[in-house]
Fold this protein.
Amino acid sequence: MSTTCECETKPTLAMATIPKQKWCEPYDLCTALSEGTIFPSLNLTFFKAPQGDTNLTCYYESASKDQQEREKALSKITEVSFALNDLTLYLDTHPTCESGLTLFHTLMEERLTLLADYAKNYYPLTQASMITGDCNPNHYGWGEGPAPWEGACI
């Protein structure tokens, strides 16, 4: 009796079908960040956390007023950036969707403005915001903001 087992299988091709996503009215940005997508139609129940179980707010009432304002501004940048990333994935497969392109341009302008305002009021978050945020041109200010271990919510 042989101890080896040989199974012969004929190679076959697999075919997957994936329904094409249709444009739907996106969530507001805060909801999108907490739900993990800007598109309600993609918010499926597979491993979905119960409603209200997440709290993404990172500013604390015990922090100074300046710290609270800075963290609120940073939270807004996070929301817009997340929405842009999710929308980019959509536009990769729907490059001519007028609604998607319009929202992309709106959010991109908003993100650039938020980054420039943040750099002007606090410190630059990106290399580009060192220019757009009217930072000191005679000083390389990339490392000006506090590091996460120094008490900042970044």
